[in-house]
Amino acid sequence: MYLFAFCVYAILFYIHITHPIIYLCKLSHINTTTTNNATVVLATDQVNARSILMYQQNLDKIAELSSHSAMGVSGPNCDLVNFSEYISKNLALYELSNDGMRLSTHAQANFCRGELAKALRKGPYQVNVILGGYDEKVPTGGSMYVMDYLGSCTKQNYGAQGYASNFCLSIMDRDWTEGLTEGQAVTLVEKCMKELEMRFLINQKNFIIKVIDKEGVRTLKYGADPTDN
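The structure assignment produced for this chain is given below.
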């Protein structure tokens, strides 16, 4: 009887700690992210899993919101896809309805935060978000905002979401400095990935990194091709 109860609790604990994760980092996004004055670097794992099942290992969790902004999203795949598409399509609709005028990164973050807060009283999205973008009219160029599923929002130079934050925040706090180059920011994100591979209970080998600068959003590297279905 006691042995059976122990086995049940062990399985429940295992299922709980292996819930999908995310990460991010800003350049100056496991969701891991880092920024410098002109560039934002976003990175996420590519795993789509639930409980003890692995569905795919080439998922792109970084949704492009406009030509110069994107957001990394963590959480259950249903909410991840639903929320990402809802935000991106509404921002595209705004641009079409206002003669091509695009919202700034700050405005996009506030819209995203507002939708998360509004959903709390209806059907909450179980997602955490790191949103980054580049604005030519803003002196600093790149900016990044960290949001959780409760609707809090703060502007940061670096950030991490999910279980990755336990491993990555201390690394970014130590190594992030004002005026990082793009190469240095990418190296910092890769250092966070390497720490996860070495220390985290779940081995996740596939990550995707995207960079946002004055040229727009571009995919820098990935572990598995997101278009390979």
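Interim note for the steering committee: The first helix runs from residue 2 to 17. The longest strand covers residues 128-134.
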